[in-house]
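HUMAN: I'm a chemist; might I ask for a sequence paired with its structure tokens?

ASSISTANT:
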Amino acid sequence: MNEVVETLRKIEEKYKLFQQQQFTFIRALERTREEAHDMMRPVSSIVQVQCYKDNHCYNATDRRILNMFVSLCNELRCLSQKMETVHAGDSVTNGLLEKCKLLLNDSNDLTALRATYPHGVVNHLSLEEAQHRYGGVVSLLPIVLDSMRDWVTHSNLKVLYIVSPGCARCKEETPTSQTAPEALTSNSNENTVKLQDKDFKKFLAANQRPQKKKAPWRPPGKHPY
């Protein structure tokens, strides 16, 4: 799981750099579409961008930014495959992964795809560009990244929580048969509690700051105290 989280973090960093160059990406698509005499239809798939890059791109800057987009898609596709191997999955995580795999399919139609708030990628396009040209292709990466973050969040609900004084961290549950003898030895000075989902909620409820009790109700009027 740690490897998945770290890989996702690195991809997010690359995407931030890509997002800062959205104007360059759109201009590259404009020029390559013009070279391909393909100005009528919208940019609606990953393979379409790949085709523009491979066959109709004659500018180093355009090639670099188009290659950056395709590379991000490939890295996310590999990560989705990795996610399947590190977590058994349930209806929620499986649904999120299926969504990612569908969106990252080379020939999937992105025309109707739109990233909404808090993402502003579509807002940075003109109305014509957003509706008829690039609204789908610029929405792909933020939507997939959101789904993968949701996958990580939900998967973490299935791990073993370790709560110690002043520290809370998550670790994956280790099968008893594979646990090393050293792992079975606990430090007597540490007060750690291992909890599953329901136990964790009970632990939180039991350790909440006690609420101030209300005084018993009394009828209106003067009272000796």
